[in-house]
Every structure is written in structure tokens, then in C-alpha cells.
Amino acid sequence: MTLKIDRRQLLQTGLLGLGALATPGAAQLMTARGFTHDVASGEPSADSVLLWTRYAGNDAATRLGVEIAEDAEFGRVVSRGEAIARAARDHCAKVTLDGLDPGRRYFYRFRAPDGSFSPVGRTKTLPEGEVDRFAMAVFSCSNMPFGWFNGYAHAAARDDIDLVVHTGDYLYEYPVGNYPGPEQAVAGRDIAPDHEIVALADYWLRYSSYRADPDLQAVHRNFPMIARWDDHEIANNPWRDGAQNHQEDEGLWEARKRAAMRAYHDWMPVSDAPWDNYQIGNLATIFVPETRLLGRDRELDYAVAQLTGSMQAGLENFRDGAWSDPSRTILGGPQEAWLFDGLADSTARGTRWQVLAQQVIMGRSYFPTTIAEQLAAAAPDSIRQRLQLVQAASQAGLPINLDAWDGYPAARDRLLAAVLEADANLVVLSGDSHNGWAFDLHHGDDVAAGVEFAGHSVTSPGYESFLGQVPPDAMAAGLVAASPDMRWCDTSGRGYMTVTLTPDEARGEWLFVDTIRERSTTIARRHSMTAAHGARMFGG
């Protein structure tokens, strides 16, 4: 995601810095043998779980044994199977084992032909029947060169998490020296390859770099994960037929998209389903859609919009025309039908909460005009023109970020109308923006339809990195004042979020680590918000 003041323009002007940075030897990552990247689990159900590892043997394919036990010593093995690590899949191996009991913690491991074992992983099946509590850790936006994955490290040590949800930007596609620049990059956070990832081997190697991180490994080892890509697992700001960060000299878009999707499925503990849902007993249905590659229309852009007349008149025409176009979609027709039917089915079965774990911010966000004026007064001409456009857009009732659901208002209206028709209790989980947010979601101006917990990034910088002239408290206050649906925000902290569901309430907590410039699991501050069942808005 690119915050639209705009980070791309700041990169082009040099304000965020570009340059060269030494990278690790790719050969070291590619030639390691045996179990190279720990283990992971995902796609849990009440009686099964998907297990992942990577084993680089001497052959093109290596058959691995797999076992799940009730105890870490494997004295009570309850399920066995086989997985094949294939060179054609970058030596990654996955298998789904079933026959498990619901709501139970298990231990698992892989065995190589030479008798060696992988590290022991811990996982958990989903519960059935009456469920009193279910807790999720929610992550997004982990740009490795920007810093240490301290949010992962803190969560990995917890014992009160049932499931990890990753809403995307698990890694970033940029070359070394570009986002972050050399002055922002943290020593020891090297990635390979050094160029932008475009081909399948590039994506494989970038995953290999990230998955070598011990804190990311620990999260995967200790909890099952459900995940979906956002944009940077492919290229910044993609849609069905292209991406902002894909150029003609980088080959065919379809080839790059297929390579990125394949690498993601190889390296992540996920199935090949394009979208899916997970049932948490009678407590919740978690829907995980795909919002980037399969159905999304191309993002609109104020800077290239065909504005006629004065800037204000042109933006008003844009608002009433292209921006409001009822045909524009972020999910696509087939996925909308799947989700709307799923919401109705979930409530018909008496499920208390309907959770949408997806990628981009759904709540309506507007940039404060007073801050735009303040920034424009001291900005270079190129930035001043952009800020004036942002200010005029806000005055025309247009949002900050057209890459989010704010750029697809008709699609959002259709979704929230389906929520209300299903009598659902909607909880939206989001990432992408790098900052922490809480929104009341409204259909129209005043019909409460649900709440949104939007998580801050693991390491990727937020508003503080490119609008540092404005104190974070002032920025947050201005955004909340300008955005009627926004109940709270934090624009300066890194970390992760938890969302805990009970039959009576949904409670989100944003945990902010004290630093990402060095390794630490100290939580500097926290913020929590709660929504009561049936209220469809935050309390207090």
C-alpha cells in the first residue's frame, strides 16, 4: 500500500533516500541442506491442520514423514502422513493431516530419510460447539530492512493466542536501497536478491531471506496461521491487469503475477483456495477474501484524474462520476456472491460474530485541511501541489487513500448492505496502512453496520516517516476530527494487534513495541477498544 500524500513522490524527490546497500550472498541461502527454515502450520479446522516445512536434499524430490502428537515428546502420536519436498517448489513441503480433536493443542514434526527431525512445532485446531473465548494475533506490513520483527517475537512468547492472522505485506518486493534507503536500513537486516523481485526464483529467494528470521520462525512454529497476500507480495498497488510498481521492461504482468502467487503458495502454510472461511464453533465465522489480484478494478488517482474547470469543480465531478461508479469492484462479482451468501449462512446458523480478515482499510478517512495547509506552507513546489490537491479533495468530500475501500465506495456500500440484510455482527480486521485505527462502519451516513480493527505494521513506517513535521498526537487528533467514522488512530507506532472475541463483545488491543532499531520485546504502550455484540459500533 502507498499512503497517498504520496510515498512514491517522496521517494522520487529523494526525501526518503535511495542508494546501494550490501546484501547477503544468495548462494548461502540457496545451498543450505536439510531442514532449512523451521516449520509452520495453517489452515486449521476442527479436525485438521496444514503443516509446512522446507527440506533441501540431494534429489529433486524428498519424501518426508510427518507426525502429530498430543505431547511434545511424541509419546502419544495421533496422526501420521507424508509430504514431498520438491525442487520445483523450492524444496517446500506441505501436507494436511486430519483425525484431530477440536479446540486442542498439538505438536508436530517432520522426519527426513536420513532419520533427522525438523524442529517441533505447536499448533491448535479450531473449536466446535459453545465457545467462550477466542483470541487472534493480527500482523501486517513487515518490511525486513526497516528493523527487527519485535512484534513477532513478543507474540511468539505468549500462551493465550489461538490463531495468528496475517493480513498481508508479509514481505516487500523492492530492490536493496529502495524503501528503506541506506540511512533508514538497519544493520543486519539484509535481504536477497539485491534487485527488485520479478521472476519466480527472485520471489523464492526473498521468502528465503525473510523466513530465515528467528522471530518470524517462532510465530510460525508456535501458532497456526491464516493468511492472504496484500500488494507487496506481488508489486505495489496491483489490480487485475497490472500494478503501479510493474513496468514494461519487467516483462509481462501476468507472468510476474503467476510467479508471485506460486511463490506465496510454496512458502506459506496456506491452501490454494483463492478465498476461504473458518468456523469458530458458534462464536464466529472468519472470512478471508482476496482484494488485490483477482477482482479489483484499477485504482483511481487524483493526480492523473481528468479534472475539468477549477480544481474544486473538477474534483466534485470526479466524486460524482468515476469515484462513485457503481460498477467498480474490489472483490469481483463471484467473490462478492460468495461472501454475501456466507454472511447470511453464518447468521442463519446462529453464529455470534462475522469476522472479515482482509487487507485494506474499510473505514472512511479524510485528511485534515488545516494540517494540509500547514504542511504546504513550507513544502517544495512539487509537494505543495500534491498537498493542495489533497486539501481540495477533502473539501469535496473525497478520502485520503483511493487504494483502500475508500476508492471503491459502491463496492463498500454493497458489502455493508449485505451485512445489514444478513443481520450480521461484523468485525473487520485490516492491515496495509502501517498505522493503527478503529472505525465505526456505517452504511450511508448513519446506519451502524459494524466495527473495524485496523492493525499497525510490524516494521514498515507510518505517517511519522514522511509527515514528521506534525507531532503524532496532533496528526491523530486531526485525522479523527476530519473523519466522522474514525474513533481512534495512532500514526507513529509499530507492533501488532490482538482481537479477542467472546459471546458478548469484541475487544481489540494495539500493542506498540519500544523500538524496531534493535531487538527488544518491551511493549511501550497499549490501546484497547471494545464493541458489544449487537451494537455494531464501539462503546464509550
Low-pLDDT runs: 1-27
Strand content: 25-35%
Radius of gyration: 23 Å
Percent of residues in helices comes to 25-40%
Instruction: Report the total helices.
Output: 13
Mean pLDDT across the residues is 93
Query: Termini, distance in Å?
Result: 31 Å
Strand order of the largest sheet: 5-2-1-10-9-8-20-21-22
Q: What is the number of beta strands?
A: 22
Largest sheet: 9 strands, mixed
Describe the structure.
- The chain has 540 residues and is α/β, with parallel strands linked by helices.
- The protein has 13 helices and 22 strands.
- A nine-stranded mixed sheet has the order 5-2-1-10-9-8-20-21-22. It has a seven-stranded mixed sheet with strand order 13-14-15-16-18-17-19. Strands 4-3-6-7 form a four-stranded antiparallel sheet.
- Mean pLDDT is 93; it is low at 1-27.
How would you summarize this macromolecular structure in one to three sentences?
With 540 residues, the chain is an alpha/beta fold. It has helices spanning 7-13, 26-31, 150-156, 200-211, 214-222, 253-267, 311-320, 333-348, 369-378, 381-395, 409-421, 463-466, 472-482; strands at residues 34-42, 49-56, 61-69, 77-86, 92-97, 105-111, 121-124, 134-139, 163-166, 224-227, 238-239, 242-243, 276-280, 284-288, 353-357, 426-430, 436-443, 447-454, 486-490, 495-501, 505-513, 523-532. The strands form 4 sheets. The protein has a 9-stranded mixed sheet. Strands 13-14-15-16-18-17-19 form a 7-stranded mixed sheet. Strands 4-3-6-7 form a 4-stranded antiparallel sheet.
